[in-house]
């Protein structure tokens, strides 16, 4: 029998940035900032809608290596500058939730919580994500894709690092 900590599929990432917490938070909260760094390395992000507020929705298109993906963030709770909670999902051009464009059974929705804490000018970002109302097969897929998702977020967070360094000159 699995223990409580490992019984659900989840993704946990911890990343440190040499930037103040307020600046890291603003990189998520500002349309102009978000457009500069979000997405896998080498992809092109097009924001269709950016409504960073509780109840708001961000809808975007990612072009990467000839593949087009659409996605949504539905913001649930925002506590400036400490945390952002949102539901993410793949979507279509109209903003409707769709299955993953990849050839596997990925959860339709994923609950994400990002927390930010600052110590001595260094901000620690903790991302916790888990499937919402997923089938056992989708939970298994999510668990099996942990390494791949970590790699994707690492590329995205490297871009955030570059963005933050540019701002701080």
TrEMBL record:
InterPro entries per record: ASHA1/2-like_C, START-like_dom_sf
Top-level taxon of the source organism: Bacteria
Family as reported in the entry's similarity comment: Belongs to the AHA1 family.
Transmembrane portions of the chain: none
Alphabetized Gene3D superfamilies for the sequence: 3.30.530.20
Native source organism of the sequence: Dyadobacter beijingensis
Pfam families named in the record: AHSA1 (PF08327)
Record-given protein name: Activator of HSP90 ATPase
Every Activator of Hsp90 ATPase homologue 1/2-like C-terminal domain range: 18-164
